[in-house]
Amino acid sequence: MSSTYPLDPRSAAAAQVRATLQDRERALRAEVEAARQIGRTDPAAVAREVRDREEEADAQVTTGINDAEIDRDVAELREIGEALQRLDAGRYGQCKSCDELIDPRRLAAEPFAVRCTRCQGEREQAQRRI
C-alpha cells in the first residue's frame, strides 16, 4: 500500500485498497446472510420448543447475540461503503475531522478508518463523557 495519501483513485495502491475492502465486504455479506438464515426461526416457535426456563433463557441469549452480530456487521458494511466512496472521490486516507492524513499503519489495520488517531481518540473521549 502506498504511503502517499490521499490516494489517487486510479493508482495501483487504490486498486489494492479497493480489493481489500471488497473482499471484506463479500465476507461480511455472507456472514450477515448466514446469521439472518439462523435468525429466521420464529422466536415464539423456539419458545414453544424449549422445555424449561433455562432453555428459554439460552434461546433468548442466542437470539440477542445473533442480532448484535448482524448489527455490528451491517455497521461495518456501511463503513466499507463509505470508504469505497472516499477512495473513488480521491479522499481516501484523509481525516474526516481535521483533513490531515491518516497514518498508513492505521489504514492498514482498519482500512475503513475515517479519522486520524488523534481525532479518533478525542472523539472516543468525548463519547465517554456523555
Would you write up a description of this structure?
The two termini are 37 Å apart. The protein is mainly α and 130 residues long. The protein contains 5 helices and no strands. Helices cover 70% and strands 0% of the residues.
Give a brief rundown of this model.
With 130 residues, the protein is mostly helical.
Would you spell out the secondary-structure blueprint of this structure?
Layout: H1 12-39, H2 43-49, H3 53-89, H4 104-109, H5 117-129
Q: Which features does this protein show?
A:
mainly alpha, 70% helix, 130 residues, single chain, 0% strand
Helix content: over 70%
The overall pLDDT, averaged over residues, is: 85
Low-confidence stretches: none
Strand content: under 5%
Question: Secondary-structure element order, as H and E?
Answer: HHHHH
Number of strands: 0
Given the C-alpha coordinates, what overall shape results?
Answer: flat
The number of helical segments is: 5
Question: What is the alpha-carbon Rg in Å?
Answer: 20 Å
Q: Biggest sheet, open or closed, and with what strands and sense? A: none
Main structural class = mainly alpha
- CA(first)-CA(last) distance: 37 Å
